[in-house]
């Protein structure tokens, strides 16, 4: 399957269109309002009444989260607040103590290539080339990788020309690009990203943030992005779900209503500053 057959937008540009207008006082997952950024086949995510406990430690209790098709939802919070645990529950990497997770109406009972996970560490196979790493997912499922798709993905993430490179020769940013392409080679309905850019230098981080937005729009996938960086959450997210210290769970949901994500746009910068204040008001420094 080619990338064009899965495209979410018609313009193909680098900048996404207007974001959805969501009532911040409502529960997470209010009505979607931006059809331009929603693919017809994008999958919704619904977590209902989630509880997670490790022995005597309660991480959160009765947590609800809905992510609209094609939306980027950022989970923002300090270290140890449970945001990675929540992402693992969405991915089926851990079982909830109580409650339920559904992706596209199907119960999540374990890992599945349809909900791809990108970790902070790229976790590439060092004995394989970049190209071989990207095509490993279909091979592990017993399928022959689509060579056209693999080539398109390498170009999409900016790694064309590095197909035969050893992973040891890649910079941190290039390794994350390869990791993202490897996840996309499974043609997932949902991307779940756990602070994938946190170990990178600022310039590389900003570049990959822009690349991620372009890829999400082009492929039309739903994304949940974990971060502890307010600036990153506001720049990437259609909505930002702020998690408090355990066992608070999600304390606040902030819609990002700007018509542009451009870092040079004065109106966006002004809104971002205002969002910082509102997020800090709920206890996130």
Nearest-angstrom radius of gyration? 18 Å
Helix-strand makeup class? alpha/beta
| Order of adjacent strands in the largest pleated sheet | 6-7-8-3-9-10
Biggest β-sheet description: 6 strands, mixed
Coarse shape: globular
Share of residues in helices: 25-40%
Mean pLDDT: 83
Low-confidence stretches: 1-39
Oligomer: single chain
Blueprint (SSEs and pairs):
Elements: E1 45-54, E2 57-67, E3 72-76, H1 83-91, E4 98-103, E5 106-107, E6 115-118, H2 130-134, H3 136-140, H4 147-156, H5 172-184, E7 190-194, H6 202-219, E8 222-227, H7 230-236, E9 239-243, E10 250-255, H8 266-281
Parallel strand pairs: 3-8, 3-9, 6-7, 7-8
Antiparallel strand pairs: 1-2, 1-4, 4-5, 9-10
Tags for this entry?
285 residues, alpha/beta, 6-stranded mixed β-sheet, 4-stranded antiparallel β-sheet, 10 strands, 29% helix, 21% strand, disordered N terminus
